[in-house]
Write a structure and sequence with these properties.
The chain folds into three domains: about 1-90, NAD(P)-binding Rossmann-like Domain (Rossmann fold); about 95-290, 3-Layer(aba) Sandwich (UDP-N-acetylmuramoyl-L-alanine:D-glutamate ligase); about 300-435, Alpha-Beta Complex (Protein-Tyrosine Phosphatase, Chain A). The protein contains twelve helices and 21 strands. It has helices spanning about 10-20, 40-45, 75-80, 90-100, 110-125, 180-195, 265-280, 285-290, 320-330, 345-360, 385-390, 425-435, and strands at about 1-5, 25-30, 50, 60-65, 85, 100-105, 130-135, 135-140, 145-150, 165-170, 195-205, 220-225, 230-240, 240-250, 250-260, 300-305, 310-315, 335-340, 365-370, 395-400, 415-420. The strands form three sheets. The protein has a ten-stranded mixed beta sheet, with helices on both faces. A six-stranded mixed beta sheet has the order 16-17-21-18-19-20, sandwiched between helices. The longest helix is centred in the middle third of the chain and has 16 residues, at about 265-280. The chain is globular, with a radius of gyration of 22 Å. The relative contact order is 0.09. The model has no long low-confidence stretch (mean pLDDT about 90).
């Protein structure tokens, strides 16, 4: 088949395009952004052409899918609708792929990417797997029966997916442009976990919203609280990483070390370990492989230039910002911390501006960029802007590339850039300042 993926540099669309190519299809793409993005590596390795001018021929032999980050009024999408091409939703195509494999789906409002990446790391080094990870990493291994999948709740996408096993990391209000309230998002997760999961669920039992789900499938809870089936004990978070002991009831399974920072990462690892054990992977193999793990792109991604520490992270929700800043404090406890946050949507900013301010206040200094959003019309959100965050953020400042010179360069300071919107131009501008410093 022939596929044309509009918004192909988006993390999810790039991943899907790579998998479609691996399945033997012809794959082409369109994107507005000509500049290099971190999601392009897999596309380039597969020689997938990217168009920028709307010149790709559309006819009845082509299936068109597009990213929801693009408005349906986008000229290229409108061109597709007016053509003879077949239009097929992104998540429907991915859903069809999940049915070809024994799929392990990782869902949750936070922690999906890291947990899926942990599974991929262990599986590929033991029993093998295909994978779909929301950092632009995807691959089909035709010799493997397993697929590990990051199952995104955005736009209720995951309701099109089918899995043998599902892991749910946490649930809280998110994507307020899609879900009317917390009850709505809990009910949607419940539907996915009960109707789309064939065998069993692995769930964080310390999460009060997960505990509100009425499970119809067998569920194995993990966490620190005694009522869980799998218990996390002996937690130790230091500058080298995080270690813990995992119990199954009263049975001590083993102690594990992960080269990751923050308590939330221990929970992600516990969910992945349980899934691997249930698939027959030995605890000895898991214990050996975990210290070798390297996290997904834009997840606590560190760059050190001449002793200056820069961190690039995808955090775009107040909870994610909070736990990531705490993780930075864990590793760099003796350094000052500056954060530059780029809000992604007007709806999320309107819903969580006070929580954003509270989370950002964990840094010694915080800058906030203007909101950058392609899929929402600012006219629909009145006076919503980054100033809503700044008014509750003591010492906070509005930041754009023209003001990057204001950010201090100090070897005793960690500078963290955060947001799911593009922040690479800010990182490049800051990095160039360091590189151009006189000795």
């Amino acid at each position: 088949m022939k596929y044309y993926c509009i918004g192909i540099k988006g993390s999810g669309m790039s991943t899907l395009a790579q998998m479609l190519k691996d399945l033997g299809n012809e794959v082409y793409g369109y994107d507005d952004q000509k500049e290099e993005k971190f999601t392009q590596k897999g596309l380039e390795e597969r020689h997938i052409p990217i168009y920028y001018d709307g010149s790709f021929p559309l006819d009845g032999s082509v299936t068109v899918t597009f990213s929801k980050a693009f408005s349906e009024q986008h000229p290229e999408i409108q061109r597709a609708y007016k053509s003879q091409a077949n239009i097929k939703p992104y998540n429907q195509i991915l859903g069809e792929i999940t049915e070809k494999f024994q799929t392990i789906a990782v869902c949750g409002t936070h922690g999906k990417t890291t947990t899926t990446s942990l599974l991929k790391h262990i599986f590929t080094n033991t029993i093998g797997c295909s994978y779909f990870i929301g950092d632009g990493s995807g691959k089909i291994e035709k010799d493997s029966d397993h697929l590990v999948l990051e199952a995104d709740e955005f736009n209720r996408h995951f309701l099109a997916y089918r899995s043998q096993v599902s892991i749910v990391t946490c649930i809280e209000l998110e994507h307020t442009e899609i879900y009317k309230d917390l009850e709505d998002i809990i009910e949607t997760f419940q539907k996915f976990l009960n109707q789309n999961t064939k065998e069993y669920v692995i769930a964080c039992g310390d999460d009060e919203n997960i505990r509100k789900i009425k499970f119809e499938k067998p569920v194995f809870f993990y966490g620190e609280k005694e009522e869980n089936d799998y218990l996390i004990k002996d937690l130790n978070l230091d500058q080298n990483g995080s270690s813990f002991t995992l119990y199954h009831g009263s049975e001590r399974l083993d102690s594990f070390f992960i080269p990751l920072y923050g308590k939330h990462m221990v929970y992600n690892a516990a969910g992945a370990i349980i899934a691997c054990l249930k698939k027959g992977i030995s605890k000895e193999e898991i214990k050996k492989l975990l210290p070798q793990f390297k996290n997904a792109k834009r997840r606590f991604q560190e760059t050190i230039l001449n002793d200056y520490v820069i961190i690039d992270d995808y955090a775009h929700h107040p909870t994610e910002i909070q736990v990531t800043l705490k993780a930075i404090r864990q590793k760099y406890k003796d350094k000052k911390l500056i954060v530059i946050f780029s809000p992604n949507t007007y709806s999320r900013t309107a819903a969580f501006h006070k929580e954003f301010a509270q989370a950002l206040s964990l840094a010694d200094k915080a800058y906030v960029t203007p909101i950058l959003c392609d899929r929402e019309n600012p006219n629909d959100y009145g006076n919503v802007s980054s100033n809503l965050i700044l008014k509750d953020l003591p010492g906070g400042e509005l930041m754009d590339e023209s003001k990057i010179d204001q950010v201090p360069i100090d070897s005793n300071t960690v500078v963290a850039f955060m947001g799911c919107a593009t922040v690479s131009h800010l990182i490049d501008a800051y990095s160039n300042r360091i590189k151009n410093m006189k000795p």
